Triosephosphate isomerase
Amino acid sequence: MRKNIVAGNWKMNKTLQEGVALAKELDAALKGRTINCDVIIGTPFIHLASIAAAIDITRIAVAAENCADKESGAYTGEVSAAMVASTGARYVIIGHSERRAYYHETSAILMEKVKLALTNDLTPIFCVGEVLEEREAGKHFEVVARQIEEALFALDQADFAKLILAYEPVWAIGTGKTATSDQAQEMHAHIRKSIAAKYGKEVADGCSILYGGSCNAANAKELFSRPDVDGGLIGGASLSVDKFLPIIEAF
Ligand code: G3H
């Protein structure tokens, strides 16, 4: 059966020292506790190696928030999937709406990133989601299906089965305006149906689909109770243990 997952995405927050301290605090808080989901923290590149060395990475796995769409070479400032993997990180967030919007990452670029992540044994957490205008125009299902199809449907079945997906309606990210659990459930079910049509029911049923967008201690339980919502990708509320831990414990 598919995994329940709570993943943090720190975005561009925390100095190295603050990040290591937060990861250690979370690790200590989880130690000895019964946790019913996998826990992942997505951190800036420069934190990855230090955090992976400072915590028990069997208890909290570490994710990069991005990786390059090129294997290696003269790409000043870029960080490759192989470099990410060499830090001890096991996951990489790919296709976050902030990367799509501010850094112009297209489906073609995202496809390269996914392939390189998989080649380097990293599990992509692939993000999709519509902007408000698309939802208001009733195009949200179409937009999300297209994002998945364009970037992922060239993968073979075995590779697709390794992915984690995250549905993050852009209008809900950092706005305090969470999707209702009905809105999340219907989109997650729609995503699963499109995966089933392409790769079959077994792959679709095995794929963890996380919800992201103003998910917090107050709404996590309701969201995670829905049959196709397999956890959360948490931004703001992952930046302190007192806010993140109750979300983990919502499972
Ligand atoms: O990756 C995380 C999402 O962008 C959600 O961010 O929880 O701050 O709304 P948020």
Notes: The longest helix spans residues 181-199.
